[in-house]
Amino acid sequence: MEIKNLKKTAERILAALLNKENIILYGDADPDGISSVVILKETLEALGGKPSCVYFPDREKEGYGIHQEALRKLERYAPALFLALDCGMGNVQEVGLAKKMRFEVIIIDHHKPLPETPKASIICNPKQKDDQYPFKWLATVGIVYKLSKLLCSISKKQFRAEKFLELAALATLADLMPLEDENEKMVQEGILALKFTERPGLKALIKVNKVKNFDLKEVRQKIVSPLNAGETKDSLNETYLLLIEKDLKKAQGIAENLIEKLNLRKEEIKRIVGEIEERLDLSQKIIFEGDESWPLVFLGPVASRICQKYKKPVFLFRKGKKESPGAVRMPEGQDGVKAMMSCSKLLKTYGGHPPAAGFRIKNENLEKFQNCLIKYFNYSSPDVE
């Protein structure tokens, strides 16, 4: 059995290569989105083509997902096949705008579908309605890894997608996917492949961070954590630049920079956690806090720490001038997407997984959103889909 629309996606990509169409790879700027872009980019190259543009949204300026500002920057490539990787399921308006700009949108994602689905040309997501694929917990990178294998198979090119196993394993770990079934096998095989990797970026990270045992704990701490520390500048992410770098010496410089950023990031996360703890009112059912000075990229890890410690739903946001993007983390058995669904009229965009999600809201609706969430958690029982 195959993921719904996987073959359809592969055939559309091959047609685009054959017709020399513009292809845009638009990925979320985390290890899952980045690794998915790297795999698809290198697969296109192996098939004799290449993307016209690779784009990662700047989370601080553009937030998560497909952004209207990003679409305007990319409009010069239209008409084009627009592949949204690890994002797009919550971008109804943006996909509509993309279509008007003459982009044909394909969404390859693993986030929970919302009541209103974007009108993309193709959606490839094992969690979407009517998808009979039995395993629902692949990261986007797992879907793209399967897509790469299918592209190689259909095109009959002498190219082995197994060279991407390390990336598939690392991104699956980074996205905290359950290590069971297909994920367990992929991570085990990927970590084994990591020991013998030919990818200069990963070789550099292994050398600089002195990776020796290649057990799960060490791989998470010394490889996955630095991959999470990359910043996005001019639509390209540092982690992406590390993973595509072919020169080992240059790769070592990028790896050292990522490790340095990781250490600064830990200090910043600790500071924000301390600020939030000073404000906490533990009589409330939820933790709902925001600040102008909190960088959005830190809010996910901060929310995770607060959630683990206090076992409450956590909603954190970086307050902007007119709008605020935020991160959501849930205790076990509770569903952050379902909670936001009940308050969806107040939100510009939202989406993610039951335990970890995000949102964007107009500032005028922040207090209403908080009250709506308090009401929801006062009356709902813990559940997860």
Average pLDDT number: 95
What is the structural class?
A: alpha/beta
Give the C-alpha Rg: 20 Å
What is the terminal-to-terminal distance? 22 Å
- Please give the order of strands in the largest beta sheet: 2-1-3-4-5
- Unreliable stretches (pLDDT < 50, length at least 5) are none
Fold-level CATH name of the largest domain: inorganic pyrophosphatase (n-terminal core)
Report on this model:
The chain has 385 residues and is an alpha/beta fold. The protein folds into three domains: 6-194, Alpha-Beta Complex (inorganic pyrophosphatase (n-terminal core)), CATH 3.90.1640; 197-264, no CATH class; 280-379, Diaminopimelate Epimerase, Chain A, domain 1. Helices cover 48% and strands 15% of the residues. The chain has 15 helices and twelve strands. Helix 7 packs across helix 8. The two termini are 22 Å apart. The mean pLDDT is 95.
Explain the layout of strands and helices.
Blueprint: H1 6-18, E1 22-27, H2 31-46, E2 53-55, H3 59-62, H4 68-74, E3 80-85, H5 92-100, E4 103-108, E5 122-124, H6 140-155, H7 165-174, H8 181-194, H9 200-208, H10 216-227, E6 232-233, E7 236-237, H11 238-244, H12 248-279, E8 287-291, H13 296-310, E9 314-318, E10 323-329, H14 336-341, E11 347-352, E12 356-362, H15 366-379
Parallel strand pairs: 1-2, 1-3, 3-4, 4-5, 8-9
Antiparallel strand pairs: 6-7, 9-10, 10-12, 11-12
Helix pairs in contact: 1-6, 2-6, 2-7, 2-11, 6-7, 7-8, 7-10, 9-12, 11-12, 12-13
